[in-house]
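Q: I'm building a small set of examples for a reading group on sequence design. Run inverse folding on the following structure and report the sequence directly after it, with nothing in between.
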């Protein structure tokens, strides 16, 4: 007996009733989500600490506050986002009404990861609710403490006829993917992303895939050395490196490497003390499987900083690797831990060539005092997002889309982009019933005169339209 048949039937009945379409209902759901975060802030921080040893500082800025910001933005702007969007018309449609209507897809599935188990679960949910969908939410079973709170507490704040939480591991995810959804939003690895896309193809279900990849970080010889070291270390070690947009490797000259490594050591000591393991601000690896994979990567290249680990605590020290070969595992797979390899290149052109030989990353970073160098890296590469002279701050700005390209994903969200992702943009034209004599020139028998008139009438400010 399929455990999700009754759940999906309930959600589809609620959607067909039209109750999710009103702005008032959507806003009420969003405000309920906000109350969930406010009322259970301490509970959520405790759960994040249990799962990831995440400090209250990191939990606040990267999980709770970002989600609240997305909710507040959606509540303030929802009515404007929902309005029909008028479009320019050509001569042939001057008497018509032409607009884009934003409609909810229906019943959507959100599959979330474990590394930011609140942010990456609830921010897509904000977009789905704002767009008027019913939602099945599948949090990660690996972040068990947060999963429990989302399953037991969150439903109390939302209309349960329009919302459901599915619990379990890969088997449950597989059962969900056998169902027909109107949209699937997945955040996770490229390997699982392919499985999701294959399953969605059976029903021609549209998808957003937020994946990952190896994010390059080019450091130019002309830069403020300690500033670069501070920023790279913080962004690499934030959440113990378990961040899909963290810098995954450094590209720099051998001369810069010799200067950068001591500066990074100073940054690590300043941030986490002489014994990072005892620091309350450095997280832990989520589970044994992930820890063992990272421990294996410590054997790549030569350890210049760190390299210590403790399996009992799932602790990996902030680590910098040098003399790394491109063929080694640490340069072939996304690291997802506080380990940072350095590869040597001679200048920005060689860095760009190196980056372009590989799959397109989710994020890309360039550090230089020379603005032209940063622009050269930006112009010569492709990535989901780009940030010059800092780490992943671009993803904190809701006015910028967040998403990958190529192997790092497809689709985008954050802010209004989330609303648009979970909305079907319906092309609408309303024509008055009369005036048949004007429109009769479209009909056979065709003449060259009528063709010329129609061609001129169908031009829209330099854009041509085609009758299908």
């Amino acid at each position: 007996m399929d455990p999700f048949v009754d759940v999906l039937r309930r959600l589809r009945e609620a959607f067909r009733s039209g109750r999710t379409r009103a702005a008032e209902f959507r806003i009420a759901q969003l405000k309920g989500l906000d109350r969930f975060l406010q009322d259970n802030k301490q509970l959520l921080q405790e759960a994040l600490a249990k799962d990831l040893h995440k400090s209250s500082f990191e939990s606040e800025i990267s999980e709770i506050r970002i989600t609240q910001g997305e909710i507040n933005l959606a509540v303030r702007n929802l009515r404007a986002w929902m309005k029909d969007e008028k479009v320019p018309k050509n001569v042939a449609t001057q008497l018509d009404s032409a607009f884009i209507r934003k409609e909810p897809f229906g019943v959507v599935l959100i599959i979330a990861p474990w590394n930011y188990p609140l942010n990456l679960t609830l921010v897509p949910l904000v977009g789905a609710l704002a767009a008027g969908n019913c939602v099945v939410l599948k949090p990660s079973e690996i972040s068990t403490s947060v999963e429990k709170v989302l399953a037991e507490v969150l439903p109390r704040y939302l209309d349960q006829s329009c919302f459901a939480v599915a619990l379990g591991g890969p088997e449950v995810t597989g059962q969900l993917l056998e169902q027909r959804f109107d949209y699937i939003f997945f955040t996770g690895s490229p390997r699982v992303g392919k499985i999701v896309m294959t399953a969605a193809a059976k029903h021609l279900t549209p998808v957003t895939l937020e994946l990952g990849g190896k994010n390059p970080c080019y450091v130019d010889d002309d830069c403020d050395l300690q500033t670069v070291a501070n920023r790279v270390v913080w962004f690499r070690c934030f959440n113990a490196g378990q961040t899909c947009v963290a810098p995954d490797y450094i590209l720099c000259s051998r001369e810069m490497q010799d200067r950068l490594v001591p500066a990074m050591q100073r940054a690590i000591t300043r941030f986490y003390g002489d014994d990072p393991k005892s620091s309350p601000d450095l997280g832990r690896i989520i589970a044994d499987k992930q820890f063992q994979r990272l421990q294996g990567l410590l054997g790549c290249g030569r350890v210049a900083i760190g390299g210590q680990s403790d399996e009992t605590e799932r602790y990996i020290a902030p680590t910098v690797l040098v003399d790394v070969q491109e063929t080694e595992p640490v340069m072939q797979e996304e690291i997802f831990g506080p380990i940072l390899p350095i590869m040597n290149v001679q200048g920005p052109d060689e860095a760009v060539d190196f980056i372009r030989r590989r799959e397109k990353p989710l994020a890309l970073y360039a550090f230089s005092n020379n603005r032209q160098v940063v622009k050269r890296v930006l112009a010569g590469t492709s990535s989901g997002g780009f940030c010059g002279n800092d780490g992943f701050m671009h993803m904190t700005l809701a006015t910028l889309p967040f998403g990958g390209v190529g192997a790092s994903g497809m689709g985008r969200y954050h802010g209004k982009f989330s609303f648009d992702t979970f909305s079907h943009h319906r092309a609408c034209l309303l024509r008055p019933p009369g005036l048949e004599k004007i429109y009769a020139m479209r009909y056979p028998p065709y003449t060259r005169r009528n063709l010329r008139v129609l061609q001129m009438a169908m031009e829209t400010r330099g854009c041509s339209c085609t009758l299908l």
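Residues 56-82 form the longest helix (27 residues).
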